[in-house]
Amino acid sequence: MDAASFAGTEPFADDGRIDRAKLAAFLRGAIPGVSGEMTFARFRGGQSNPTFLLSFANGRRLVLRKKPDGVLLPSAHAVDREFRVIRALQDSPVPVAKAYFLSEDDSLVGAMFYVMDFVDGRSFWDPSLPGQSPAERGAIFAEAGRVIAALHGLDYAGLGLADFGKPSGYFARQVARWSQQYRASETETIAAMDRLIEWLPANLPIEQAPALLHGDFRLDNMIFDPTEPRVLALLDWELSTLGDPIADFAYHTLTWHLPAKPFRGLADRDLAALGIPAEPAYRRAYFAASGRPLPDERSWNVYLAYSLFRVAAIRQGIMKRVVDGTAASAHAREAGALARPVAELALAFAERADI
Predict the structure, then answer these.
(1) 127 with 266: CB under 8 angstroms?
(2) Total-model pTM
(3) Tens digits of per-residue pLDDT, 233-260?
(4) Which of 73, 108, 221, 302 counts the highest number of beta carbons within 10 A?
């Protein structure tokens, strides 16, 4: 899928679940500086929580994120957790959009939702960063690395997030959770997932000191300044929790291990020509900035196997929503179909760790 197809917004037909007039009146009364008629569009990108751009006649723009319609997997689509962490980070070194309120009033949009400011800037769906110079690409990736290191260095307890997750036993819980989510959304047998569900609990990495984790730290979940290599907002906190920061960083580096098609990755790109750091150099920079010891290659392969296993489970969840008719995106079937190749790549890293 061309990265351009994920960018921007598209019209959203009235499906009867969203009372636009009632929602507009509610927002005009709830948020200062909001007035006039409201137009409603849907962001193309993303597969999980439907996200909408609300534009008002006076020029004010807001973003609404809601749970999907239909029966959902347990603990999935946690927009309330997203809202809580964004509010906690408002004045922290990690940039986020200003969030206003969380609503459980189903009569407005048919499900729980929250509203935050629209952050005007650049979104990079293609990590090869077409249109940028080599120096600009290097600066953009350096900034992404800076932000994830800053995130993992936060005093999460001081931000009021001490109970945002269980700091210990992270890997065992996560493997169990994603195994359960995968089984609950299984639509076909994937042998690699069956093997990983057996292999991962017996090969957990040594537990690291906990940090606040984003859970989906990718370049396309950041809004950059229109002209500078500076992150204005880190988005999509649905999977955030407390736990091992190396797992969060390993997930972030999957871009380097996946090909351009169909994953929008960098594995088959000429990174030196593009000005993008190679994964080992990027990895070393993160560990130097975070002050954590660099893991050995076996441990790193376990982290990558786990990260890809998790992605495969998420992709399978998307496919289940396609089968159930509740998928949030027009690209959902293509995204869900990638569960098998991602699982097979995860198993390859697991086998590399066993050598």
Answers:
(1) yes
(2) 0.89
(3) 999 999 999 999 999 999 999 999 999 9
(4) 302
